[in-house]
Structure formats: C-alpha cells, structure tokens
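Table 4 source record.
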Amino acid sequence: MKKNITANTFTPIYDELEDRLRVVVNYEDIGNRVDFMITRNFILNLIPSAEEFILNYYSKEPMIYDSITVNPESNANENKVFSKTDAVNLELFRTEEELLLEVNFSFDLATKYTLLTLSSKNVSAKISLDSFMLQKIIHVIKSAIPFMKWGISRHF
C-alpha cells in the first residue's frame, strides 16, 4: 500500500554520489519525510513541463521564478514550503531514497491553486500551491541542478 503524505517543506540538493537531485520533503518530520531521487532525464522533462503548466494556467500572474532570491525567513506563508535546512539533520535523518516516477500538476479553476503530487513506487506527497509558491518550488529545484556537470545550459 502506498504511503500518502502532505508535503510541508522541500529541500533540493544535488547528490554527488548518486549523480541525481535529491528533493527532501519534510526533512524535519521523520515520520513524514521522504527523499525523492530525481534522474537527469526526469529533470530534463520536468522543468519544461512545469514551466509550460505555469504559463498555461498562470499567464496573467507575474512570472517571478527567474528573479526569486530564496530566503526561507522572508514570511510565515513561505516558511510552510521552504525551511532553513540544517545539513547535519538532513543527513542524520536521511530516509531510504525513493526514485521519483511521476509528478502531477492539477489546477483548480475555483481556487486558482495547483495540487502538486510527487510519486514514487511507495510514497505520494501532495501540496496545494498558489502561483507564487509553485514557481518558487520549480526555481529552487532548478537551482540545485548541476548544469555544467550534466552538460545542460542554465537557460534550458
């Protein structure tokens, strides 16, 4: 049976050993933490698809993800999704990695929010986001990509 969790925080880091992105969901909540591993190929498909989704559903909203400076202490609403990461705890409470197999974006016309779902074989993490927070998540994931090492332009 697949475990379902609510995502409250996202911490993307490049895992040199695995040569993959690790997106840690709920890194401080050991009972609901999941370490999603994302392959280069998956990222190459995910980022353009996410950006297309944002343009498609939030075209009237300001496109802010290219100019965001991530500051997890900027306000209480943002702290729900981004928390200051303690590298020691990030490693100390590391969970078994889950290979990210699917990312779904589901837009609600009534609320103008997107339900973001990240799924592996064993875990599904969901969060409802407005335009700003969705763009911010894509931005921080993109900022963790080792562009040079993977032979990718920063502007792909």
